[in-house]
Amino acid sequence: MLGICRGRRKFLAASLSLLCIPAITWIYLFSGSFEDGKPVSLSPLESQAHSPRYTASSQRERESLEVRMREVEEENRALRRQLSLAQGRAPAHRRGNHSKTYSMEEGTGDSENLRAGIVAGNSSECGQQPVVEKCETIHVAIVCAGYNASRDVVTLVKSVLFHRRNPLHFHLIADSIAEQILATLFQTWMVPAVRVDFYNADELKSEVSWIPNKHYSGIYGLMKLVLTKTLPANLERVIVLDTDITFATDIAELWAVFHKFKGQQVLGLVENQSDWYLGNLWKNHRPWPALGRGYNTGVILLLLDKLRKMKWEQMWRLTAERELMGMLSTSLADQDIFNAVIKQNPFLVYQLPCFWNVQLSDHTRSEQCYRDVSDLKLQKQLSELDEDDLCYEFRRERFTVHRTHLYFLHYEYEPAADSTDVTLVAQLSMDRLQMLEAICKHWEGPISLALYLSDAEAQQFLRYAQGSEVLMSRHNVGYHIVYKEGQFYPVNLLRNVAMKHISTPYMFLSDIDFLPMYGLYEYLRKSVIQLDLANTKKAMIVPAFETLRYRLSFPKSKAELLSMLDMGTLFTFRYHVWTKGHAPTNFAKWRTATTPYRVEWEADFEPYVVVRRDCPEYDRRFVGFGWNKVAHIMELDVQEYEFIVLPNAYMIHMPHAPSFDITKFRSNKQYRICLKTLKEEFQQDMSRRYGFAALKYLTAENNS
């Protein structure tokens, strides 16, 4: 807030995802501002040139660099003319308050640093907003005082820069500390198409010092009231932000809202999301007057030209004087006075949607805004769905966006020199956590895991992993947290997340309930070479078996496994409930096979395979239980992958309690009906995409 927050953190969510972010060449320039008639250089070389320690060698280096910089400047002028970045930049206006200007032209910048701390938010698909011209300058005003506020401003500015496409002009009302910190920062942070003006906050104190304020922001918490007087007279509109705001979209989208103002609307504000102004937070709570819940001033759109014509200065002063006769002081600084003025003049306000200022603090209704934004981001896709469809929830799940935290724990990977490395890919939820140590003991190669967890479960997993010597000793395991949302287990989304973030040329698509045979990692790497996977479209099948025993003496060889099959300790996977899933593997042939052999696709085939990393993704329409792997194998087949069974490889499924999704499948008739519908739609999509090649799947389904 001003440099000193209101005791609540706020998050500014987006209303529309970026269509594109233009790539601009960042090059070094000498640029600066003028102070006392002397140029203030942004290059450390110039300041060094006046030092006694500046040597003749350094002088030659500087002259050489200056020649190069002049050449670069000539090239860059042409670029700037094309982009018109300099258009519309009004000179800083003093208006009785000393102002300093810093203009950051094209520079190198630090793109990685620029992205630090940025919060990715929801984008909104709500109504089309007027387009902001590509080179129109967007003006942003921020009140900032002290060390902590200066640090907050950096985070705010980074978030704005991360998404912006337009030139920016920051107007910083700052005390001497903040100005010293931020002036240095902006001089050394050579960001393109950004101008910064400083206004001395200490010179404005007399304008608001007569207002008693109990808020800890102190006198700086009142300075947004005098922006019409402080900012340049020819500045028509400005976005005013508290320092604890984080942007999650292009600020041009908020700037475009000015075009929606009508009549005498001069203030754009979001409704306050707490009950503060309702006066019911505690006994004898007496807030300042406000319309309903009142408005929050963490984000304000100000039409400065109209406010000046309305005599805003006189309006807010008279209101404050009148209310202070009874209230004695403000509790929320400028926000109380803004709301008192609006109470008397409601026509002044254009109410912004809540996602432009999501207020994160106690006693707020911000979670309601989250639901609103979540609905908005899905609006376009869901508008095409029929809510009366009995399978609506299944279809909706395909468009759900799940918050994802990649590499939740430390990850290191050293690429294999022979380019044969294979990553084991799997997904799991909290109830399968106990399998992790066993898998790590059986598979020494890299692993990519997608974990479907709630926030609380993610912390439990963190404690579990940190307490496990086995897991902490392995740095080649990538743990990717996909946070829970919706009623279905998004199994194929999880698989896609794990697949997408592997570092090896090949991947073993497994499930968390399987233990690979000892030595499978090295065997697969040799098979990759033997079968020339790099240059052919093959899917190497690892035959799957299962045991019903929770304690199993794991077979150390194929001969041992065959013996356990004969004794009834092991079985071919799902032979007793879903024979078709793995029957095409031809286990009878595998028993005696010594070389890899090819098998043909059959209906409902769902083996576990090793493929190149560029293989198709899993289809997200299949959630929970049923057809999630079958559809993927079908897509591999239609893309002409060969299915090759490895003669000396195996994996064993370990017993566990039935999952919630398989229970729903078995007990819920509508669940099974919807799964059948999704299968038919998938096959129709296959026919549209692959034409004649996909007809056999319809025939196979009808004959099965």
Automatic annotation (TrEMBL):
<dbReference type="GO" id="GO:0000139">
    <property type="term" value="C:Golgi membrane"/>
</dbReference>
<dbReference type="InterPro" id="IPR051292">
    <property type="entry name" value="Xyl/GlcA_transferase"/>
</dbReference>
<keyword id="KW-0328">Glycosyltransferase</keyword>
<dbReference type="InterPro" id="IPR029044">
    <property type="entry name" value="Nucleotide-diphossugar_trans"/>
</dbReference>
<dbReference type="InterPro" id="IPR002495">
    <property type="entry name" value="Glyco_trans_8"/>
</dbReference>
<protein>
    <submittedName>
        <fullName>LARGE xylosyl- and glucuronyltransferase 1</fullName>
    </submittedName>
</protein>
<comment type="similarity">
    <text>In the C-terminal section; belongs to the glycosyltransferase 49 family.</text>
</comment>
<feature type="compositionally biased region" description="Polar residues">
    <location>
        <begin position="44"/>
        <end position="58"/>
    </location>
</feature>
<keyword id="KW-0812">Transmembrane</keyword>
<keyword id="KW-0333">Golgi apparatus</keyword>
<keyword id="KW-0808">Transferase</keyword>
<keyword id="KW-0472">Membrane</keyword>
<feature type="region of interest" description="Disordered">
    <location>
        <begin position="83"/>
        <end position="109"/>
    </location>
</feature>
<dbReference type="GO" id="GO:0030145">
    <property type="term" value="F:manganese ion binding"/>
</dbReference>
<dbReference type="Pfam" id="PF13896">
    <property type="entry name" value="Glyco_transf_49"/>
</dbReference>
<dbReference type="GO" id="GO:0035252">
    <property type="term" value="F:UDP-xylosyltransferase activity"/>
</dbReference>
<keyword id="KW-0511">Multifunctional enzyme</keyword>
<comment type="similarity">
    <text>In the N-terminal section; belongs to the glycosyltransferase 8 family.</text>
</comment>
<comment type="pathway">
    <text>Protein modification; protein glycosylation.</text>
</comment>
<dbReference type="GO" id="GO:0015020">
    <property type="term" value="F:glucuronosyltransferase activity"/>
</dbReference>
<keyword id="KW-0735">Signal-anchor</keyword>
<dbReference type="Pfam" id="PF01501">
    <property type="entry name" value="Glyco_transf_8"/>
</dbReference>
<keyword id="KW-1133">Transmembrane helix</keyword>
<feature type="region of interest" description="Disordered">
    <location>
        <begin position="43"/>
        <end position="62"/>
    </location>
</feature>
<dbReference type="GO" id="GO:0035269">
    <property type="term" value="P:protein O-linked glycosylation via mannose"/>
</dbReference>
<keyword id="KW-0325">Glycoprotein</keyword>
